[in-house]
Amino acid sequence: MMAATAFDDAMLAAVTVGPAEMDAEAALVAAAAAGDAGAFEQLYRTHASRVYGLCVRLVNGDRAKAEQYAQDAFVRAWENLKSFRGSAKFSTWLHRLTVNVVLGEHRLLKRWVSFEDLPEESGPPVELTTVHPQARVGDRMDLERALARLPKGARAVLILHDVEGYRHEEISELTGIAVGTSKAQLHRARKLMKELLQ
């Protein structure tokens, strides 16, 4: 079972980063890409908890696996830092790299769930982003249990889209599934979440 703090991290609103912070981070990235281990350590300290939280959610709360994946993601980041072009924020690049590590670098998810045996639901989908970080611990734990019960593929799409904010086109690129499949998985996952939370 995932601790409430992992979910809290995912639900916190994105912090607006000012130009000075962006310039400082760009300088750290450039220094790290040039081989400065101290600069990379600062980047690690800034992003480690968020990368670990993403890994925890993608591996259904298995903290040992999440730790290994987070370490692997930072090793991969160090090895590939020279390929970071700066066209997106470093955190976006690092998140995509992390998702690739967890889901299997550039490989298709081979077993996407079939929802054919699940009962159909009516009504609007459940949005994960509507749960406030200050919600009661019991409510957050119920949500985490429901997430844990989702099949792997559906959970991945739901987390990537509703928690991490990726668009369907980005999910398609990360996982190798079609955009339509991503949309269908998200729709079905939301319906299943609503059923599990009732």
Tally of separate domains: 2
Q: Based on CA inertia axes, which overall geometry fits?
A: elongated
Radius of gyration: 17 Å
Q: Runs with pLDDT <50, length 5+?
A: 1-17, 105-135
Mean pLDDT: 75
**Helical segment count:** 9
Classify the fold: give the CATH topology of the largest domain.
Answer: Rna Polymerase Sigma Factor, Chain: A
CATH superfamily of the largest domain: RNA polymerase sigma factor, region 2, helix turn helix motif
Helix/strand-derived category reads mainly alpha
Order of helices and strands: HHHHHHHHH
Topology:
Layout lengths: L3 H8 L7 H15 L3 H22 L4 H18 L9 H14 L33 H13 L2 H12 L4 H8 L3 H19 L1
Helix pairs in contact: 1-3, 2-3, 3-4, 3-5, 4-5, 7-9, 8-9
